[in-house]
Amino acid sequence: MSGQIPIVEGRGICKGFAGVWTHLVLDHIDITLFPGEIHALLGENGAGKTVLANILSGFYTLTEGQIFVEGKPVVFKSPRDGLRHGIGMVHQELALVGPFTLAENIAIGLPSLDLKWPIPEIEERLRALFEKFKLRVDLKAKIEDLSAGEQQKAEILKVLFHQPRVLILDEPTSLISQETQQFFKILREMADSGLSILFITHKIEEALAVSDRITVLRLGKHMGTVKTTQTNEAELISLMFGEYTPPQLERKKTPSKEVVLEVQNLSALNSKGEVALKDVSFAIRKGEILGIAGIAGNGQSELVEVITGLRKAIKGKVIINNQDYTNAHPRKIIEAGVAHIPEKRREIGVVEQMPVAENVVLKDIGEAPFSKGSFLRIGAITKHAKKIVRKFDALVPDLWHSQTRILSGGNIQRLLLARETWKKPTLLVAAYPTHGLDAKAISRTWRLFMDLREEGVAILLVSEDLDEIFSLSDRIGVMFEGRLITVIDREETDKNTIAFLMTSGSFQKKQK
Ligand SMILES: Nc1ncnc2c1ncn2[C@@H]1O[C@H](COP(=O)(O)OP(=O)(O)O)[C@@H](O)[C@H]1O
Ligand SMILES: [Mg+2]
């Protein structure tokens, strides 16, 4: 490739979004795309891959830096400018209009001067593309009637229709999950025909399988560009995550005999007034993690809400440290030492209009050291909030001048985890605690839960993620249609069994 001129080059690309972050979302990124190469753009969620792709294809303007096409500086004001220079992007979310066919979608998208393109001619050109690239969709079908994989093919064909020289694919997950090998072969043939492909993914194995070179981004920074044949998984992991190895989760202590939470024959209605929690009973001991697996919507939310006082039980009891807390006020339950990481972070986890600092101490704001009499002690709150933000790597523009509303879901979750655990609760009720976090934050959260367990905290962990359930739980329960259908020691079961229970509600295959 040396000596060759890249079709596209981005040099020192920076992007900031007005008023939102004090840091750059992209911070001096360099990237070159050569004809005939498949270039993987690899990075965790939030690394900046999509933003970079949008800049290279003209959807976003850049804050600083320069794009070159065949060595000449260019300025893209719109995606049409990108396409005119031969750069086409297939977005992660499908963009075609459902009630129309692919050819009709292409006709709608053409500049009005090009309306002379009749549908049959568009279809003819598409058929030629089918032959050339071995990508086919039903031309008579409406987009909405195609499968997810076919819809993604249609998106790609729509971009190919414009005869790009660079094809950017932002996490084409439907095609990868359905027909990986075949899809990668097609991409290779496209590249062999001279096309340059920028393939965006957060999965190392995909980058290794499909590409000639790999550019790694981490939190908006360019960590390096490597030849695929000269790298390996270990190097890519350290580029993606820094000098970071996931912690070993070991359990030293066994749970004590002391029961912290006991739930007896609990039933509750959902918001539609239907019985959504049916006669559920279990106990959690000090230093024990009980994982509740289940597909969301099988009564887990109602269970968590009844335990934390946010929903009334219509039957049964909630006993915490041998005292009856059934239908007690949420404040009383907090005072009993129950921490809650709710599923609905923004609605009930934080007060979105409040500054970040106040949210960090929300549950203790009226108490020392954060208040004295009726006055807030700003210094003490700031000190504590700073410590927490640093410990959990939350990206917060300003503790006092930013409303919590503007934080990303991942950052709100980091603050909630910190707030709910720093005081060492008696019982931690956690619903989907790592949902939306990146791999590093997930393993840090798991580590935190294991540490709390070792310190004797009882934990109710509701999750859909079986890796999480199996990494953390001492015992595993499965909820199905409002019932707790089993509770079993982790060592006595396996992921397949639990997955089967989650979807069928029974140990036996149903008779047809
Ligand atoms: N329109 C926007 N306004 C403000 N911030 C944004 C916008 N789009 C993306 N971001 C932020 O930029 C960062 C990178 O996002 P993105 O490029 O979508 O990541 P990736 O595709 O690697 O998962 C994230 O922190 C995201 O919150
Ligand atoms: Mg993305």
Question: In words, what does this structure look like?
Answer:
This protein is an alpha/beta fold and 512 residues long. The chain folds into three domains: 163 residues, Rossmann fold; 168 residues, Rossmann fold (3-Layer(aba) Sandwich), CATH 3.40.50.300; 76 residues, no CATH class. It is built from 17 helices and 22 strands. It has a six-stranded mixed sheet with strand order 6-7-8-3-9-10, sandwiched between helices. It has a six-stranded mixed sheet with strand order 16-19-20-13-21-22, sandwiched between helices. Strand 21 and strand 22 form a beta hairpin. Helix 3 crosses helix 4. The longest helix has 20 residues. The mean pLDDT is 89. Adenosine-5'-diphosphate (ADP) binds next to helix 1.
What percentage of amino acids are in beta strands?
A: 15-25%
Q: Helix amount, in percent?
A: 25-40%
Number of strands: 22
CATH architecture of the largest domain: 3-Layer(aba) Sandwich
What spatial form do the alpha-carbon principal axes imply?
A: globular
Ligand set: adenosine-5'-diphosphate, magnesium ion
